[in-house]
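Budget justification aside, the reviewers requested a transparent look at the raw inputs and outputs of the sequence design task funded under Objective 1. We therefore reproduce one unedited record. The lines immediately below are the structure tokens for a 209-residue chain.
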């Protein structure tokens, strides 16, 4: 992906976002990924079993809507035949451990909704977002969300970066923060959830040893 010159302060954040997304996609689908130093590391594509694997009891995950929410969840968020375990405030404490499916769905939804609330109709809610119950659909949703968010960023000028509440995403601090802080926050969401997904992949691979 090329870097926009529309708002020069965005350039390093766009480069970071691109690298984080490409590395996460490679970590999930293979056949290789960037090891971090430019060399390629072989990766086995993630299976549906691994995608839904629950390493500990009472995980939150994505589930068929007909089966209802999982332990300590009170609802299944999203649209379609599948939903993501969720609960109204106050959330359960300590937080439930979440599967790859849950983390990837959360990340993809956040990217898609923030894109809409930045450069779209500014109306999408979690109830509108379709949840994928398999790897192929979930990876495609992540790619679509990342693409939409990046496209939204390319419409931003320098003044917008300093505008408080420029993004109207309703599930974060967007109304109180300058937009450039939101761009930074989205990057760290991709980075830290990507690292979590990578770790769960390592645990899944090592579980039979």
């Amino acid at each position: 992906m090329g870097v926009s010159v529309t708002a020069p302060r965005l350039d390093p954040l766009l480069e970071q976002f691109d690298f984080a997304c490409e590395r996460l996609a490679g970590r999930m689908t293979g056949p290789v990924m960037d090891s971090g130093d430019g060399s390629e590391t072989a990766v086995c594509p993630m299976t549906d079993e691994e995608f839904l694997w629950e390493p500990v009891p009472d995980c939150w995950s994505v589930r068929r809507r007909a089966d209802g929410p999982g332990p300590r969840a009170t609802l299944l968020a999203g649209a379609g035949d599948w939903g993501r375990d969720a609960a109204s405030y106050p959330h359960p404490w300590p937080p439930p451990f979440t599967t790859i499916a849950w983390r990837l769905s959360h990340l993809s939804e956040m990217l898609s909704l923030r894109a809409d609330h930045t450069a779209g109709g500014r109306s999408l809610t979690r109830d509108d977002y379709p949840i994928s119950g398999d790897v192929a659909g979930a990876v495609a949703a992540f790619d679509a969300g990342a693409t939409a968010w990046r496209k939204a960023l390319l419409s931003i000028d320098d003044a917008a970066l300093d505008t408080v509440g420029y993004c109207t995403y309703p599930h974060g601090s967007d109304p109180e923060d300058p937009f450039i802080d939101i761009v930074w926050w989205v990057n760290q969401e991709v980075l830290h959830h990507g690292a979590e997904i990578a770790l769960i992949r390592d645990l899944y691979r090592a579980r039979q040893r």
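The chain has one domain: 11-88+96-206. Residues 11-88+96-206 form one domain. Computational costs for records of this kind are itemized in the attached budget.
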